[in-house]
Amino acid sequence: MHDGLPGLGARQWGVGLMRAWLEEYAGKRGALAWPHVAITLYLVEEVSARQKGYSGRGWNDRWVVIGQDDLCGDPIFVDDPVVLTAAHGEGSWEEVPIAKSLDVMIALMNIAEAVCTGEEEMMSGLAKIAELNGDLEVDIEFWKVLIERF
Q: Domain extents for the chain?
């Protein structure tokens, strides 16, 4: 197991986060697909290069960008263990939680895909998204917008 990624210090990409990323997403990238969910999650080897350009008022150096919202290009990033997003081009970065961890993020992507393909009802899917996040208040509207585009 790696202690971090090239170009990212241990403070930015800790062992636990790297392990979660490898086990829950990157190691399964070929087996998992969400063609109807407008989020791109980066491969592990892409993560270091994808950090460029993220700075400015409100940006926290420990945040690690792991993907983007394809509807508007907003970053998807981690503040170990929480997965967040923030609107770009607003003058400052105001983070919004969308998943309590990387493993929950993968589960939420699966739920969103099931709703988009009609295998799951919208309200049931959104309830599952809230339930999987437990006590963390995530932005359910974020997930609703992603799902409603279909």
A: 15-148
